[in-house]
């Protein structure tokens, strides 16, 4: 009887381990699998989906949201949240548009710099005053948006007509990529190249630097990280500063592409960024996820939104409903997978 009991217990343990491994695999690679499946379905249903114009449009449309999501990834990995990124994006775009006549470098540094400083303020208040990130970044979201509206008197700020170099940042391309044997023509747009470069640097920083290890440690257990001697405050300040910088860069690119700095730009950008991070597989509780999964999440949401447009029969309001339901479903699945692990 004891041998039979031992055999049953051993089999049950193996089954539990197998389920845990499967849950872990789905949590890490589920977004990529979903992206591939959605692309296959889209290619079969819509003739325009695989055209070079549509694919490049998806990449361009999601270049600035991808930058915001990249910064948000570092914040969420520490167990925090940044609700101010949409407002910081607007402030950066307005500042860059004001200074566009001074040249690309001045406008870019000023726009990104202002957003970086505001992100730094978020981090310092959270780390030093020990106030919840939700409250601090909510306050910054309101204040920064109000600042943008006051400075502009609620009007858009047009980019200088002489600022051709500034317009190049959001609209230009370096070259065109041709694929032999396939009638595809991919312009290498500057925003897309910036997005790729930012994610490469972000991946290296998160996975191969001390700062990246501290981010994961802080997300796993803040108190344990302190007991290990990690500078928790410095890491916290760093991730919110980085989030502000990425939001600022996104705002400058958006202003360059649209030819105007809008104080109302980026409304809801924080929700899209959080959605992309969570859909990619990064846990809202922190400590698990990564930059690569966020990029997959950005592309997955971008393709889904593109399908809404290709369908043509779904109103913009129903698109918001579907996006909310989809995000809720992903969070529920993540929680169940985490429990099984």
Describe this structure in words.
The chain is mainly alpha-helical and 341 residues long. The protein has a single domain (17-340), classed as Orthogonal Bundle (ABC transporter involved in vitamin B12 uptake, BtuC). Helices cover 75% and strands 4% of the residues. The chain contains 14 helices and 4 strands. The chain has a two-stranded antiparallel ribbon with strand order 1-4. The protein has a two-stranded antiparallel ribbon with strand order 2-3. A hairpin with a 6-residue loop joins strand 2 and strand 3 (185-189). It is globular. The model has no long low-confidence stretch (mean pLDDT 88).
Provide key terms for this protein.
ABC transporter involved in vitamin B12 uptake, BtuC, globular, mainly alpha, 341 residues, two-stranded antiparallel ribbon
What's a quick, concise take on this entry?
The protein has 341 residues and is mainly α. The chain has 14 helices and four strands.
β-strand number: 4
Tell me the number of helical segments per DSSP (H or I, 4 or more residues long): 14
Tally of domains: 1
Q: Oligomeric form of this entry?
A: single chain
Q: Any idea of the CATH topology?
A: ABC transporter involved in vitamin B12 uptake, BtuC
The rounded distance between the terminal residues' Cα atoms is: 31 Å
Instruction: Please mark out the parts with pLDDT under 50 across 5 or more consecutive residues, or reply none.
Output: none
How do the strands of the widest beta sheet line up side by side? 1-4
Q: Measured on Cα atoms, how large is the radius of gyration?
A: 22 Å
Label the structural class. mainly alpha
What spatial form do the alpha-carbon principal axes imply? Answer: globular
Portion of residues in beta strands equals under 5%
Question: What is the arithmetic mean of pLDDT?
Answer: 88
What's the story with the biggest beta sheet? 2 strands, antiparallel
Helix content: over 70%
What would CATH call the class? Mainly Alpha
The CATH architecture comes to: Orthogonal Bundle
- Reading the helices and strands in chain order gives HHHHHHEHEEHHHHEHHH
